[in-house]
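Pipeline run #58 for the internal structure catalog. This entry was flagged by the ingest filter as a single-chain record with no existing model, so it goes straight to prediction. Upstream metadata was stripped on purpose; only the residue string is passed forward. Reviewer on rotation: M.T. Logging verbosity set to normal.
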Amino acid sequence: MTDAASAAVSDGEASANEAVIRAWYELWLRKDKDWGPFDAALADDFTFSSPVDDRISKAAFKKNCWETQIGFTKGFDLELVAVKNDAALVKYLCHTTNGKSFRNVEFLRVRNQRIETIECYFGGKLTYPSAVSSRNG
């Protein structure tokens, strides 16, 4: 395979993976708040890490993160989506249901059109949608 052909395959894979990642953030905008589409978007062996979570499972993510935050999440402005092969770095501005906002950075990996892992980087519990929503000012 030539270098040009390799680059085209990588570009195509990166483009497909970027679509998966963008679709993930779009799921948070659903009005029905159904877990099914989220479950389908995540690999069976999905893990989530953050300053307070160390590679928790999909089930733990659902219970500890999704169930507690979905009601406070209104949407995202994706400020940076940088994809290379199966990895992506995303910087976003998250909007809460009461008009407040905060920024986080996430590192994601995609495998077989499903999200394999998310590593969320933030400055503490004050950058959870529920914490931002309940903050005065």
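catalog note: The two ends are 58 Å apart (CA to CA).
catalog note: Strands lie at 42-50, 53-57, 73-84, 87-96, 101-111, 114-121.
status: ready for reviewer M.T.
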